[in-house]
Amino acid sequence: MTNPREVSATASGISCETRIFCANCIHCKLLPSPLGQGRYKLRVRCEAGKWRKPLGEEKVYKYFTVARRSIESCDAYEDMGEVEDFLRDLRGLLPTSDEEYGR
Which of 90, 68, 91, 82 lies closest to 21 in space, CA to CA? Predict the structure, then answer.
């Protein structure tokens, strides 16, 4: 049986063997983005400062998209374990949309 993750990765042109998945890096951090009245959405950022907009401002991404973030190389990358196992588990735990949370 074909692994659905491998099919989607192949279809999008991304291979676990040739790309670095940011979610598996020690520098990928989860943070709340306040909405007001005690509500927030979850975002991720690169603690090493590798995610930048063209004008230099830090880029943050929606939490539910973190498993898709990948780059070809990164001098700050420090993996947190076996990438395929980690991503499989992460994809099972991530929300499917940008959800709001309350405190």
Answer: 68
